[in-house]
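Teaching assistant's notes for section 4

Start the section by putting this record on the projector. Ask students to predict, before seeing the second block, whether Uracil phosphoribosyltransferase will look compact or extended. Collect guesses on the board.
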Amino acid sequence: MKIVEVKHPLVKHKLGLMREHDISTKRFRELASEVGSLLTYEATADLETEKVTIEGWNGPVEVEQIKGKKITVVPILRAGLGMMEGVLEHVPSARISVVGIYRNEETLEPVPYFQKLVSNIDERMALVVDPMLATGGSMIATIDLLKNAGCTSIKVLVLVAAPEGIAALEKAHPDVELYTASVDKGLNEHGYIIPVSAMPATRFLERNKIYREKSRL
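Reveal the predicted structure now:
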């Protein structure tokens, strides 16, 4: 599995600001969108282009445009919506597919509860966005849904990832690509990414500032 930890200075700076315990929900969302935008820039660096001739201001001019598969952005509800705007800044024509998954607190297994995928997803590259890759359960379940629908080109964009989640994702889906702003230390006994100051997905939901995202994996 291709794993890219984006170490651009702007990504490091913005991610550091997001880790501040007293950051406002508004600022957190803005930064998440900005980092999502930068991750998209990296994830789409290998898109193929083709030369076409267009009518310029001073006559015909040859330019390069993206060719090949179109894109669908797939936010995992609900926190993934916070990164979606930044992704769409670079690919505004992308279609939106949505997947909702929660964790069964007894079995700790991911449970899909909603999906709305574009009809021609088998012809598109999917950019799956979620703030955190912790145990990897939600992401793996999402990719399972996409592949079952015929999608064969999948890239994952997350703000932070735990080594455990990366290993699980690689084992389940070695053919996907992972782009993350940070690989953090690991998981605590509850399956949450540490350090504890790592971004709580609840900021996207305008709840309190205590880390209590118990429905995420």
